Amino acid sequence: MNNHKGKLIGKDLLGLGLLFLFLILFLFSEQISTSNQIEAIPNAWMNVNTIFLSIVIEAIPFILLGVFISALIQMYVSEETIQRFLPKNAIAALVPAALLGAIIPLCECAIVPVVRRLIKKGMPLHVGVVFLVAAPILNPVVFASTYFAFRNNPTILYSRMGLAFVLSIMIGAILYSIFRKQPHQLRRTANLSLASHHVHIDGAMDHQSTKPTVGTRVRDTLYHAVDEFFMMGKYLILGAFIAALFQTFLDRSLLETIGSNEYSSTLVMMVFAYLLSLCSEADAFVASSFGNQFTDSSLVAFLVYGPMLDLKNTFMLFAFFKARFVIAFMITVTFVVFFSVLILFGLIL
C-alpha cells in the first residue's frame, strides 16, 4: 500500500516538475533564443514548449471549475437525489441529460471529473455519456463564441448546436444498448492521497457524532477538489504535450491537400480536432481560420467532434473508465459524427 502511494506521489511530482520546466522555458524563451550557449535547442522544440503551455494554461481554469463542481457534487448531492430526479425509463432519461448540458458552462477539459463523480453517485452510465458529449458544446459560452466566429455563416452555428443535441442522445442510446448488462465501467481507483484520507476520516467522524459544520464542509470540499485536480492534472499534462508535438511536427499543407475533397475534408478536420485538443470555448475561432480552405461540412465536423473527443480527454477517459468502454465510446462518437455530418449536408442519402 505504501509503495503504491509512493508511486502515485512520485507521478504527481514528476508532472509538476515537467510543468515547472516548461514554464521556466516559456518565461525565459527570449534569453534562451539569444544565448550563444544554448543554441542546441531547436526552434521546433521551443515551439512545442509554447504550444504545450498555451494548452495547459487555457485548460487549467476549466479543470479547476470541473473539480470544484465535482467536489460540490460529492459533498452536497446524494445518490437519492440523483435517483429521484432522473426518469425511471432509461431512454426517457437521455433528453433531460442533453438539456442539462445546455445550461451548464463546462468544456471538455472540465467535464470528465464531473461525469465521473455523477456516475459514482448513481447516475446511469448512458446518461453520464450524454452529459459528457453534450455539455462541452451546448452550453451558452460555446454558443456565443461560435456565433461571433461565424456571424456571416449562421449555418455553421445552427448545425453545430442541432447536431450536438441530437447526436448526444444517439450516442447515449447506442452505448446503453452495448453496456446495459455491464453498467459499471468506472475503474476502481484507490483514493490514497492525504487529502482523501482526511476527508474519509472526518466524514466518518461527522456521521458518527453530529451534523457537519459549514467550516467542515468547506474544508472537505477543498480536499476533494485538490485531490481530483492532481489526479486529472497529470493526464492533462501528458495529453497537452502530445498534442503540442502533433501541432508542431504535423504537415498541415498535406492535410489541406487531402481536405479538398468533400468526404476526406470532413475526416481530415475531425483528425485535426482530435489532435489540436482545443478548448470548446475557443475552437470556433480556429475553425473560422480554415473557412477558405475547407467546406462547411468539414468545419461542422471539426466543431462537433473535437469537444466530444480529443487527445487530452482521451487520456482522462482511459484513466478513469475501463478500456473496453473508452474504445467503444471513441468508435461510436467517430462514426456517428462522421456519417451524421455527411447526411446533414446531403453528401450521402
From TrEMBL:
<feature type="transmembrane region" description="Helical">
    <location>
        <begin position="162"/>
        <end position="179"/>
    </location>
</feature>
<feature type="transmembrane region" description="Helical">
    <location>
        <begin position="127"/>
        <end position="150"/>
    </location>
</feature>
<dbReference type="InterPro" id="IPR005524">
    <property type="entry name" value="DUF318"/>
</dbReference>
<keyword id="KW-1003">Cell membrane</keyword>
<keyword id="KW-1133">Transmembrane helix</keyword>
<feature type="transmembrane region" description="Helical">
    <location>
        <begin position="235"/>
        <end position="255"/>
    </location>
</feature>
<dbReference type="Pfam" id="PF03773">
    <property type="entry name" value="ArsP_1"/>
</dbReference>
<keyword id="KW-0472">Membrane</keyword>
<dbReference type="GO" id="GO:0005886">
    <property type="term" value="C:plasma membrane"/>
</dbReference>
<feature type="transmembrane region" description="Helical">
    <location>
        <begin position="50"/>
        <end position="77"/>
    </location>
</feature>
<protein>
    <recommendedName>
        <fullName>Permease</fullName>
    </recommendedName>
</protein>
<feature type="transmembrane region" description="Helical">
    <location>
        <begin position="325"/>
        <end position="348"/>
    </location>
</feature>
<feature type="transmembrane region" description="Helical">
    <location>
        <begin position="89"/>
        <end position="115"/>
    </location>
</feature>
<dbReference type="InterPro" id="IPR052923">
    <property type="entry name" value="UPF0718"/>
</dbReference>
<feature type="transmembrane region" description="Helical">
    <location>
        <begin position="299"/>
        <end position="318"/>
    </location>
</feature>
<comment type="similarity">
    <text>Belongs to the UPF0718 family.</text>
</comment>
<feature type="transmembrane region" description="Helical">
    <location>
        <begin position="267"/>
        <end position="287"/>
    </location>
</feature>
<keyword id="KW-0812">Transmembrane</keyword>
